[in-house]
């Protein structure tokens, strides 16, 4: 399967690591950057159907999805709802691309969140376009966490309304799914919500709304983006993560281009590393040998 899009690493001009082992803050750590990025991607999608950036490339997402399929569904167990119905969450889902691959792979209980309303809307539109039943969940106005995000909201950031796949205005899928994958997509369900992962009250309120923590939590590039905000933001993400991962055997699978495998293991030491997923290296921004690291963790018994 493939998608007509460009592959990009985390940053057009990657910041050098700071002396203390932290990342130097950059624009990619700000909400404004992502709001602008996804507003542009929404426009591009409307004008010529571009699905937007696939961060670290199609291959990185495929490796994560393939590992999840092999580990959680397995050969011949595709129709076992106890496996395919495991609750999946993609943190900072962007355009929703990895969730669509998870749907095509046979996972049926999908969730995605992002703090950028335009990202949530782009995911919703693309889901509807490929025939994946989708809803956007939002908290009642006065609920804790519904309006307490640290950043002020502009008019253009109002919650998108809930829609179903039936409102798809374009019939053609931009993905090259085969028949079985298309069938899987139609039999899956995606819930999206806008959530700032650094706001503990909002995380808890959205967990209550979504029915509790998740069996499989995915992160491709979101921890990287948050690490480019500040060391304290990065540490808040680590602190909030256990709220999101099911205490009964939940997994967290992360892909990063700013942190090595060893650093990821150290940062997420509250979890037990169970696999290092092979990822390619590439060159960009004048720096060579930048690795993409991918590690799967499980909650400690
Ligand atoms: C590098 S992009 C990766 C997007 C997507 N995971 C992918 O692989 O294409 C980082 C994503 O993290 C989101 N993000 C950054 N900080 C966040 C936060 N505090 N809460 C929720 N999402 C955040 C951004 O809006 C953006 O969609």
Automatic annotation (TrEMBL):
Bias (Low complexity): 140-149
Keywords, in A-Z order: Cytoplasm, Methyltransferase, S-adenosyl-L-methionine, Transferase
GO biological process, one term: methylation
Residue ranges of domain Methyltransferase in the record: 84-132
Family annotation (HAMAP family): Methyltr_EFM4
The protein's role, per its UniProt record: S-adenosyl-L-methionine-dependent protein-lysine N-methyltransferase that methylates elongation factor 1-alpha.
MF GO annotations: protein-lysine N-methyltransferase activity
Keyword S-adenosyl-L-methionine belongs to the record: yes
Organism: Fonticula alba
Entry-linked Gene3D superfamilies: Vaccinia Virus protein VP39 (3.40.50.150)
Pfam families: Methyltransf_31 (PF13847)
Family: Belongs to the class I-like SAM-binding methyltransferase superfamily. EFM4 family.
A GO term from the CC aspect: cytoplasm
Name the record gives this protein: Protein-lysine N-methyltransferase H696_01508
Chain residue ranges for the region called Disordered: 1-30, 140-181
